[in-house]
Design a protein that fits this description.
heterodimer, A: 265 residues, mainly alpha, 76% helix, 2% strand, globular, B: 267 residues
């Protein structure tokens, strides 16, 4: 069996076991849904407040900024449903020393830990994101640009890849600073800046959010693509950027895992 | 557990708490990095105020406001809700109950002993704020400096007590982290941490005036940046301490009732 086919089959097994696990905690589904909807709604308050005071900010109208918030909400849903649960589990493994069992398995450790847990029922925010986009375009009284939407779809892939790479980089830090609640906190608070169009930031911050922690590529660019005003080079650079980050996070992961000295045993 | 023996135990408890903070200093640094949200909001509000001031806020006022917000957040942190929820679930709360000291006192001391290290982080930010925006914003009235100290203490107390009340809920539900998440969401938005209270649209502002959140961050920050005169500051101080009274009362009742249900699973 070829390597790729084997990993596909492994992915299937992992997804099936997550679903079975998830079915045990059905009540959590409703509660999580309510809590995350609540988060999203309260998080809109600053947006309303800012646009209550001004019609446009850094060249964005309220309706256009809603698209950025929509992308932010969508990525948050992906993070909550597909990325966070697995990677929270890794840190627990590192803390307890049970990562040994993962490392012993005859498959790539990064693949195994990244696909260990999926919780799609946490992704109720996907719907909120769709609602935000619809409201945004209705307020603008136009349709999304068709070609731009295709580009946005491509950017969804690169954005997810970027998000995943950034998470791997954060988790790699857990080999050095063993505590997750702090790390998740740190990641979330930095990611929170992606809620706003990157044009809001100036100077160093703008540069950081474009090249170092590429939040711009994750929310501002896709929103601009939907509006049909993302320049083609920016699209190309996003793809390149996602590749570079993926490669970098892989290197850092391998380096960190080499440092792993099983705890407690 | 007499008051005298509690007071005698305090210095030792502080030393232990402080030593623990020093041991986990890397984590503390990560935590501080995670509270840099005011800087993002500062960038946002500066963009809003780029062409013309918003209300009484020009760009420089936003710099003063959000740097003060960063400092106040460092000094008013508490995390008992997570501690309590964890200790109820694992049964380790039993150990705390055995000690001849009220558990809330030991939690309070543990949380307070983080403040010296956080002061070290807050200090350079305070210097930066003074360099960038000048000292003329600081209150000149000595009475207001007194109010500031009480407001900071009150802000910490509300954070601590709200945490404790929500943590105590775990005695009924097993875990109350979800409730704490809801509280945090409300805190972030309505405390003045992201948006200065006076800039909210009228409808939201009305709600913020009666909620406890603004007393955690917004009120001390407003005193520190000289936005309040005597009358307004004293009125808000009264509001803050009324909330503290309500929280203390609620915590007493809940703690007494909840503890009867405590079964120390696995402890």
């Amino acid at each position: 069996m070829s390597g790729v086919a084997r990993y596909w089959r492994l992915l299937g097994v992992q997804v099936r076991s997550s679903v079975l696990l998830g079915l045990q905690y059905r009540a959590d589904f409703v509660l999580d849904g309510v809590v995350s909807l609540f988060w999203t709604l309260t998080a809109l308050v600053p947006l309303f407040t800012v646009f209550h005071l001004r019609d446009t900010i850094a060249g964005w109208t309220f309706a256009e900024a809603l698209l950025v918030t929509g992308w932010f909400t969508l990525l948050e849903a992906i993070l909550e449903g597909a990325i966070n649960p697995s990677l929270t589990a890794v840190v627990e493994h590192i803390r307890k020393g049970t990562l040994d069992f993962v490392l012993l398995k005859p498959a790539d450790a990064q693949f195994l830990v990244s696909t260990a847990r999926f919780e799609p029922w946490r992704s109720t925010n996907v719907i909120t994101a769709l609602v935000l986009w619809v409201v945004g375009f209705v307020r603008m009284g136009r349709m999304p640009s068709p070609l731009g939407s295709l580009a946005a779809l491509l950017l969804l892939v690169t954005a997810t890849a970027l998000l995943y790479s950034l998470w791997i980089l954060t988790v790699s830090a857990a080999f050095y600073v063993v505590k997750i609640d702090n790390l998740t906190n740190l990641f979330n608070s930095i990611f929170d800046a992606a809620r706003w169009p990157v044009q809001v930031f100036r100077g160093l911050m703008r540069w950081v959010f474009t090249f170092v922690v590429p939040l711009a590529l994750m929310t501002t660019f896709p929103a601009e693509a939907m509006l049909g005003r993302l320049p083609l080079p920016a699209l190309a650079w996003s793809v390149v950027g996602a590749g570079v980050f993926g490669w970098l996070s892989r290197r850092v992961w391998l380096r960190s895992i080499a440092r792993y000295t099983s705890a407690s045993s | 557990m007499s008051v005298r023996s509690t007071v005698r135990a305090l210095p030792t408890l502080f030393r232990v708490g402080f030593a623990e903070m020093v041991a986990y200093r890397a984590e503390m640094l990560v935590w501080v990095l995670a509270t840099t949200m005011p800087l993002i909001m500062l960038a946002l509000w500066s963009a809003v105020a780029r062409d013309a001031p918003v209300g009484r806020f020009g760009q420089e006022d936003f710099v003063a406001y959000f740097l003060a917000t960063f400092i106040v957040r460092q000094l008013t942190g508490a995390w008992v809700a997570w501690q309590l929820s964890f200790e109820v679930r694992t049964g380790t709360l039993a150990m705390r109950l055995l000690r001849p000291l009220h558990p809330m006192v030991s939690y309070a001391v543990e949380n307070l002993s983080a403040i010296p290290l956080r002061l070290i982080v807050a200090f350079p930010v305070a210097v930066l704020a003074l360099v960038l925006t000048g000292a003329q914003r600081l209150p000149r009235d000595p009475l207001l400096w007194g109010v500031l100290l009480l407001a900071l203490l009150g802000g910490w107390l509300i954070t601590f007590l709200a945490n404790a009340v929500i943590g105590t809920l775990a005695l009924w539900t097993g875990s109350s982290i979800k409730v704490m998440d809801v509280w945090l969401a409300l805190f972030m938005v309505f405390s003045g941490y992201l948006v200065p209270v006076e800039l909210f649209p009228p409808l939201i502002r009305g709600a913020v005036e009666v909620l406890p959140f603004r007393y955690q961050i917004g009120f001390p920050v407003e005193v520190l940046t000289g936005a309040l005169h005597r009358g307004a500051a004293l009125r808000l101080l009264l509001g803050q301490w009324i909330w503290i009274g309500l929280f203390v009362l609620g915590l007493r009742i809940m703690w007494r009732r909840g503890l009867q249900r405590f079964a120390a699973y696995g402890g």
